[in-house]
Amino acid sequence: MKPCDVLIVGGGLAAMKSAVTAAKSGLQVHWIVKKKVCGGASFYPMMDQVACQVSTGVPEEDALYMEEILDASQGMASREMNQIYIDTIRDRVQEFPEIGVHDYHLTEAKVACFASRPRPTYVWRDWPAIRKNMRAIAADTPNLTLMENTALLGILTEEGAVSGALVMTPEGLDTIPCKAMVLATGGMGNLYQHNLNTPDVSGDGQAVALLAGAQCINLEFNQFIPGFVSPAYKTVWRETTMPYMDGLTDETGRDLLKDILPDDAQRKECLRLRGKHGPFTNRTLSRFFDIAMMKGILQKEGEVIGFGIRYAPEIAEDMSTYVHPYYLWLKQQHKLDLAKDEVFIAPFWHAANGGVKIDKDCSTTLPGLFAAGEVSGGIHGADRHGGHSTGSCLVFGYIAGNSAAAYAKEKQQAPVEDAGHAAQRLFKQEGSLTPQELLPQIRTLMFRKGNIIREEKSLLEAIDQLRQWQQDFGPYPYLHDPKGWEDAVKTRNFLLLGQALLTAMLNRKESRGSHYREDYPDTSPAYNKRFTLTWEDGKAVPREETA
Ligand SMILES: Cc1cc2nc3c(=O)[nH]c(=O)nc-3n(C[C@H](O)[C@H](O)[C@H](O)COP(=O)(O)OP(=O)(O)OC[C@H]3O[C@@H](n4cnc5c(N)ncnc54)[C@H](O)[C@@H]3O)c2cc1C
b/e map of 516-545 (b: 16 or more CB within 10 Å)? Predict the structure, then answer.
């Protein structure tokens, strides 16, 4: 394929912002998206709206904002990068129309998950309209070439710097020579059996970056949120509905929390606190809500059927921004009336707080590789404020687009190997196991052993199992099969990324925010440090962060 200066990879908010920004440099920008643009977690179909938390611009207020972010992160977030967020997010939300988002608005100030004070919050909806607008913007930008249904399979390097990409196009394997690349491939939800991501969000960026020699950071911090097992599978549960529910029952009608918190006052306090944040955290008594569910799941083999919740009929009369549109949306889209129908929930993988390690200019440890959005790591810590992930896509997508363009301007295009040779080098390995056999097993294993409850023995067993499967899996033959390549690449990436995640979870022998170790339930000052992770000689290697 024709070379470009900057290659943008991904189709969510971070990629949209990076692509539009990089194109303003006048350089040739190619933009590849695995499926459709305006995809991924940014435009999750089982969600009514997304929100972004914004600073006020009042210095005293924003100083408190910073303290709250760092407090939630429990020392695991970058102060410097969050200062950039606070200083620039107000400008970035004003630029929404540049990426086709017109119908956005400021709601009443909201206390975001893990925050203490209300702050300005922008929300936006209507994914098909945004997609149409974004495609039109790309078509009107002569130096920006958008290629949908084109997936990144590998990062090519020359003399230790990015030189191009191995990609799968609708016509087959190809390479795209580039001087700089922005990874904006999102999180890794599909590594887990139950997750709140679309199938295209499968940790490709983290896996290929690790294979190319880049570092990841904070991989042990991932958000799990209760999701609907039935009805309306994969719908996100909104904690704002908590005031209308008062328990969690198993299939026999037994209240799960009563076993774990027999004291009624404590049980009520657990539920009250659980209504304040969507993702699990072990920092407050609310943790028992999620731990009770996970224990219930681990006690049984087989399908997860979820735990029953019933809402009080008054939920139908709550007209607030964070209940009413959700209530209506479920009713209209899914014929589900929360005021009447029972819902079954379980902990679903939701979002990554860590990822490919970036610096404040969004550069990674691999020269020429930049990253933004959920694929990247270092901005967020143990717990992340709600509304900060979409905001980070805008703030750091903008920086990544500018940084990649500035880097590319100074570079000459390095030579790039042909696609056949690159595919052999990156994918050739002998093995008899098939993606059809492996994918469901890997995803179940991750769901059971790398979920809310983690402990040494099962983490070690899981890593060992993934390693054994990896040694008997050869993805190469599937690359020439138009129906088989995607699952084969996923399997290759899951086997690697699963080991990386579980190793990071094993390495942190304490509990902190979203990371809960049943065998080390307390937070330990000895772990007031961040860990990076690299892939070396076929193994995940964690190290204390040095700079
Ligand atoms: C249900 C739900 C609700 C949420 N609500 C909020 C919220 O209200 N506020 C908030 O701040 N955050 C929220 N989040 C988190 C937030 O939405 C995401 O972290 C953020 O949108 C991620 O954006 P992204 O651009 O990094 O990745 P994504 O939006 O996930 O996009 C990733 C893109 O990369 C593409 N891709 C993947 N692999 C490849 C490849 N190999 N080659 C080419 N393309 C590839 C995918 O197709 C996809 O288009 C929510 C998440 C979920 C799941």
Answer: bbeebeebeeebeebbbbbbeeeebebeee
Report pLDDT digits (tens) over 417-471. Answer: 999 999 999 999 989 999 999 999 999 999 999 999 999 999 999 999 999 999 9
> How many Å lie between the centroid of ligand 1 and the Cα of residue 56?
25
Q: Which atom of ligand 1 sits closest to the CA of residue 187? A: 30
Query: Which pLDDT score, from 0 to 100, does residue 48 have?
Result: 77
Nearest-CA residue for ligand 1 atom 50 is 41
Measured in Å, residue 109 CA sits from the centre of ligand 1 at 24
Contact 154/208 with Cβ under 8 angstroms?
Answer: yes
CATH number of this structure's domain 429-544:
1.20.58.100
List the Cα angle 366/370/372 in 5-degree steps. 135
Residue whose CB lies within 8 A of the most ligand 1 atoms, among 183, 201, 202, 240, for a mutation test: 201
Residue ranges around ligand 1 (CB below 6 Å): 9-15, 32-35, 39-42, 44, 47, 50-52, 151-152, 184-187, 196-197, 200-201, 204, 236, 350-351, 373-375, 386-391, 393
Successive 10-residue mean pLDDT values, the chain, 547 residues: 96 98 98 97 87 95 97 98 98 97 85 93 92 98 98 97 98 97 98 96 98 98 97 93 89 88 93 95 96 94 92 94 90 94 96 98 98 98 96 98 98 96 94 97 98 98 98 96 96 98 98 98 98 97 92
What is the reported pTM? 0.97
**Number of residues in the chain:** 547
**pLDDT at residue 229 in the model:** 96
Q: Give the Å distance between the CA of 360 and the centre of ligand 1.
A: 20
CA of 255 to the centre of ligand 1 (A): 34
CB 125 within 8 A of CB 49: yes
Tokens, residue 42: 């940014």
Measure 40 CA to ligand 1 centroid, in angstroms.
4
Alpha helices, DSSP H only, in 213-263? Answer: 256-260
Closest CA to 126 of 93, 89, 94, 100: 100
Q: Can you tell me which atom of ligand 1 is nearest the CA of 50?
A: 8
pLDDT tens readout for residues 362-384: 999 999 999 999 999 999 999 99
Q: Which residues contact 535 (CB under 8 A, 6 or more apart)?
A: 210, 211, 213, 496, 500, 541
The Cα–Cα gap between 304 and 191 comes to 16
Ligand 1 atom closest to residue 38's alpha carbon, by position in its atom list: 49
